[in-house]
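Annex B, item 7. Sequence and structure tokens for protein A, then protein B.
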Amino acid sequence: MAMKEFVISEVQAETAVLVGLITKTQDERKTNEYLDELAFLAETAGAVVVKRFTQKLDQANSVTYVGKGKLEEIKQYLHDEEEAEREVGMVIFDDELSAKQIRNIEGELKVKILDRTSLILDIFAMRAQTANAKTQVELAQYKYMLPRLQRLWTHLERQGGGSGAGGGKGSVGLRGPGETQLEMDRRIILNRMSLLKERLAEIDKQKSTQRKNRGRLIRVALVGYTNVGKSTLMNLLAKSEVFAENKLFATLDTTVRKVIIENLPFLLSDTVGFIRKLPTDLVDSFKSTLDEVREADLLLHVVDISHPDFEEQIEVVNKTLADIGAAGKPMIIVFNKIDAYTYVEKAEDDLTPRTKENLSLEELMKTWMARLEENCLFISARERQNIEEMKSVVYGRVKELHVQKYPYNDFLYQTFDNYEV
């Protein structure tokens, strides 16, 4: 009897289908941009996007997010792919789904259903290295799971349960102290959450002690949308090796480094990037990481100017800063990636009005950015363009702040060049 040969095929990446809505508040261009970002999130998490579905609706359907017909269309597509032996692993929705929506969509499509939030949480879980980050991510995951536990235990619904007269449907013979699995799970999770919260409170204490002990130095924090080059910039200024790669949320833990420009030392911290529709649970559980931003004296808001939608990203960051109580701080906007900036030149005979994509970098600098004057820099961290200019602007600002905050503190490193000996 011949042995059956085993063919070891290479592991194939999970494939994903994306679903987004075009609504009153979100036109087609915006939806496509959000889906681009969702695809980038999926890639960061290790999935390959094979198709996108969009639908025009006034608002998301409360039962199935998309309309009935669209759900059928997605179902048919999944079926056809399976027939062709290209099974799709998951369907990812661009908004947060309710427990009810997940249950109904899953019942219909019978594949793994993720929403934007669970995808971001998944990446965070993958990225978390330190105890602090792991605890924060775990807490956020439980917060996300709690209202959605229901769907894990649908098989228990048949039991009824509860006590007293009329305790749920079909509860004869099931009254009394018996506790359903769902309530048990809920309790386990709530206990676990309070444990994590205590642990985070401990970590918070340690962190704030660390911050207190950092001496009389001005603190500068890098903030910005995810993947705009904060860590690359950090490496350049602090001459350190902070993990940086072209993926979303490469940094979860705040890294703090001492930086010295000329004779002036200050602290520079690299923080977690922001993103649109960032789940509130995450902002809550990342409180200790965001305290770095809250306690900073100066923010360097890094913007990826080569991104077609950078103005909206600036708004998202400003809104998130306001949410965490860090609005109104001194800020310098650093437009990064000028080496990657592209624009479409208009032909001489093209008389249509110019849009944003027709502006060259020089022209762009003359728009609203010109009003920012000193508070606005254009650099390329990767190509090291204009870095010296940036250092001198940052030096100027830090020095100003230093003198205001610690008037009697001599600069730690005296420079003697300008004294006659």
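Protein B:
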Amino acid sequence: MPQFAQRVGRAKPSAIMVIAEKAKQLKAAGRDIISFSIGVPNFLPGAHVYAAAREALSHDSGQYGSNRGADALLDAFLQHIEALGFSGYGRLNLSIGIGAKQVLYNLAEALLDEGDEICFAAPYWTTYRDIADIVGAKVNVLHCGLEQNYKLTPAQLDAALARKPRVFLFNNPSNPTGMVYTAEEIAALAEVLAKHPDTWIVTDDIYNAMVFDGIGYHNFGFARPELRERLIFVDSLSKTYGMPGWRVGFVAAPEAVAGAVTTLNSNHITSVPEVITAAAVAALTGPQDIPKASCAEFAGKRDIVLAALAAIPGVVCPRPQGAFYAFPDISVAFGKSHRGTAIANDLEFCAALLEAKGVACVPGSAFGEPRAMRISYTCPTAQLAPGLQRIEEFIAELD
């Protein structure tokens, strides 16, 4: 049999999807399963989004679209980022992809040659490591543990950038921790970035509309506008608008970078379909009541999760202020057992929890932090308290 390319051996299935699929299989087999595993919003976009899609279907041209994205969608995204605080961008600064994941992959291909270094903080979204491995980049993981609330410090960043990595990848609000950087924290990191001009700065900020407690969304480009010449902002419809399956991601960047992503689109995806484009425009430009209500709902769910975790002896969880994740340290359970099942690490904890209590969580080692696990609280509200109660019972039963 002919051989595969080496990069295929470096590609791994998403750890998050593996857990989600296992939970799905158990549920199909009749088990009572509550899933805190996958980060899919538990709401759908407004009626105006579906109306726009139906209207587009009624006069679909069946033709190829723009590799960069339709003008109407580019303009809608410009309006969106201007509201966030990004001014002075035009269509040539933008490109559209099949979800933020595909945009990030295109950026990796555009910015990283094999052997180049990329650095990012841990805990990190699993796909960061996976994409870097596939393109053959060297990864410098900056460990940001519980003791620093899972946040990167200026000293850590300064040391990492002294190595002159090609790319620094930053996620705010964070998946998996839900942590959000304050304006002061962003400004301090931006000062460090300004000292190291040889590194591209990619900010994956797809949860920018899901920020709680009045902390606000902040970006390096707001603190130090001169960074915009190498700053690349990634966004998506998935989380904000309840549209993960529609697969629309965006990048705002220097013209040369947006042009490179567009060229790669011409070889990878050609274009986003007309119907999807129409729905995306409607989401960005139409009523914003559903995203706002959903943000408030997730803030309330966050409070429920934190209260439940605080009642479990030995479990520690920094206060997330965005997205829809909590990332508790569960290492108190290591070295114990549950009804004869030994638990030595996060993988065994999550496996035993799923088997014993029917609660699916993702082990923290998937995100580079093996002392923790991720709880995605996007499930129906009626399932939230019972699922948390099962986790509390599970830990109480350890011996």
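Comment on protein B: The domain at 6-44+290-396 is CATH 3.90.1150.10 (Aspartate Aminotransferase, domain 1).
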